[in-house]
Design goal:
single chain, alpha+beta, 8 helices, 50% helix, elongated
């Protein structure tokens, strides 16, 4: 699906008080190796969210390199059996844990957010508010389907969720 269609669909969920102030953007640098992509969201022209593949992947790799000592011994020969080894299983779990920790800290990968943009319209508001991805939970706080009383009971777990909650509560008061 084209980004312009995803953008229109996503912005249709935004609360009416925020709709004219909020915008989504995406870009791909075709001159960069593998076409570096990023998505960002602005409120009144100020960036409130950013997802970049290169920046995210670089930080995951850096943290993985620091934590590699916790892994079991890597098999000496690279064969099909490596995918059934303890090293492979533990390595994947460590990598996924690092990705999750980064997301909780406010780092986001463009490729994950692109998937979230496609998934969000299919979710009920309860599913969106309890989804494992921070972007979906944060965007759900901007959703018109969340009422003022419900917003007042929610606490943001990640920087993006906290920002969205603050923005929405301020918009509802005014």
């Amino acid at each position: 699906m084209q980004f312009s269609k995803m953008k229109k669909q996503m912005l249709s969920f935004v609360a009416p008080s925020l709709r004219p102030r909020l915008d989504l953007y995406a870009t791909v640098d075709r001159h960069f190796h593998d076409g570096e992509a990023r998505i960002w969201m602005t409120l009144d022209g100020e960036e409130i969210f950013r997802a970049e593949d290169l920046r995210f992947t670089h930080e995951v790799d850096r943290r993985y390199a620091l934590a590699k000592a916790r892994l079991p011994q890597k098999p000496e020969r690279i064969t099909v059996e490596i995918f059934q080894s303890d090293w492979y299983k533990t390595s994947r779990e460590l990598y996924e844990q690092i990705e999750h920790e980064l997301e909780q800290e406010g780092w986001h990968a463009n490729y994950n957010v692109q998937q979230d943009l496609l998934l969000y319209p299919t979710l009920s508001i309860d599913e969106a508010l309890s989804h494992p991805h921070a972007f979906i939970r944060g965007f759900a706080l901007l959703d018109r389907r969340v009422g003022k009383r419900r917003l007042e009971r929610i606490n943001g777990d990640t920087p993006f969720e906290f920002t969205c909650l603050k923005i929405r509560l301020e918009a509802e008061v005014n």
